[in-house]
Amino acid sequence: MSDLKAEQLKNIHERWLKDCECELKKVATQGVPGHGNPEAEIVFIGEAPGKDEDKIGQPFVGAAGKFLNEMLLSINLKREDVYITNIVKYRPPGNRDPLPQEVEFCAKWLEEELQTIKPKLIVFLGRHALQHFFPNEKISAVHGKILKKKMKIGDTFFALYHPAAALHNGSMREVLMSDFKKLPKAIEKIS
């Protein structure tokens, strides 16, 4: 099964890297498709690639990614156990927020990734990922909580502050670590 899903994801990425009409494609070094375990129970969704991701072509490989790895280890998981992606697959210039139309151009790509993997839990890393699926929610109100909503991509979600927020704000680091430690219990509840 895993080989089949891996092959499906590879085909999805190859097709979208060619066909995605996102304007950011013109200014980014390359597209940054999702990466990780095709059989993952947990998928993490960030906002968009940063400088390091744009250069390497993989999500969450910079400082925020190192912190994400550290948090994964704190709950006895490794990157190989999960799948990590972004709502936008190309780096916005100067790391600005992605524009609504850029999110829209990459939305179907993300949807296909999620429908292929069929994770038990989808974790939003930051407000952009959260608001793409829950436009009326504020990250400050729902971080560390399970969110339920029937969608084609799944029905159980979990909101976290973006790891980059903790890099800029030390007190945020404690909140994020504490929220992250709730993930195993969230998975247990679903199982």
Helix and strand arrangement:
Blueprint: H1 2-19, E1 35-36, E2 42-46, H2 51-56, H3 63-74, E3 83-86, H4 100-117, E4 121-125, H5 127-133, H6 139-142, E5 146-151, E6 154-160, H7 163-168, H8 170-180, H9 183-190
Parallel strand pairs: 2-3, 2-4, 4-6
Antiparallel strand pairs: 1-3, 5-6
Helix pairs in contact: 1-4
List keywords for this structure.
6 strands, six-stranded mixed beta sheet, Uracil-DNA Glycosylase, subunit E, alpha/beta, 15% strand, 191 residues
Report on the structure:
Helix content is 47%, strand content 15%. The model has no long low-confidence stretch (mean pLDDT 95). The chain is globular, with a radius of gyration of 15 Å. The protein has 191 residues and is α/β, with parallel strands linked by helices. It has helices spanning 2-19, 51-56, 63-74, 100-117, 127-133, 139-142, 163-168, 170-180, 183-190, and strands at 35-36, 42-46, 83-86, 121-125, 146-151, 154-160. The chain has one domain (2-190): Uracil-DNA glycosylase-like domain (Uracil-DNA Glycosylase, subunit E), CATH 3.40.470.10. The two termini are 20 Å apart. It has a six-stranded mixed sheet.
